[in-house]
């Protein structure tokens, strides 16, 4: 039982830490946008991914948010 409770505690701690990383990723994208050398279509896609990532973060879907923000960062080259 102790192991089970310990596993739950670690899971909650990890989820909380993961959730806190989404805003850091969004700030990195926001900082890179003005300097980005992207086509209009690419810029639109990055902005859409960034907005989708924020929406997912607010919904508590942090793994999905991080994946979406990662796609935006990849397009930006960061």
A few lines on this structure:
The protein has helices at 2-32, 40-58, 62-76. It is mostly helical and 78 residues long. Mean pLDDT is 85; it is low at 12-18.
Structure, explained:
The chain is an all-alpha fold and 78 residues long. The chain has helices at 2-32, 40-58, 62-76. Helix 1 runs antiparallel to helix 2 and helix 2 (40-58) runs antiparallel to helix 3. The longest helix has 31 residues, at 2-32. The chain starts with a helix and ends with a helix. The model is unreliable at 12-18 (pLDDT under 50).
Q: The biggest beta sheet, please?
A: none
Approximately how much helix is present in the residues? over 70%
Order of helices and strands: HHH
For this structure, the quaternary state is single chain
Low-confidence stretches: 12-18
Could you give the count of β-strands? 0
The geometry reads as elongated
Report the span from N to C terminus. Answer: 44 Å
Our estimate of the beta-strand percent is under 5%
Q: Give me the number of helical elements.
A: 3
Broad structural category? mainly alpha
Q: Write down the overall mean pLDDT.
A: 85
Radius of gyration: 15 Å
Keywords:
78 residues; mainly alpha
Q: Layout of SSEs?
A:
Layout: H1 2-32, H2 40-58, H3 62-76
């Amino acid at each position: 039982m102790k192991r089970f409770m310990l596993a739950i505690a670690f899971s909650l701690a990890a989820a909380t830490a993961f959730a806190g990383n989404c805003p850091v990723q969004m700030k990195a994208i926001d900082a890179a946008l003005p300097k980005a050398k992207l086509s209009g279509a690419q810029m639109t896609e990055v902005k859409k991914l960034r907005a989708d990532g924020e929406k997912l973060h607010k919904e508590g879907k942090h793994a999905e948010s991080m994946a979406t923000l990662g796609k935006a960062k990849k397009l930006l080259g960061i």
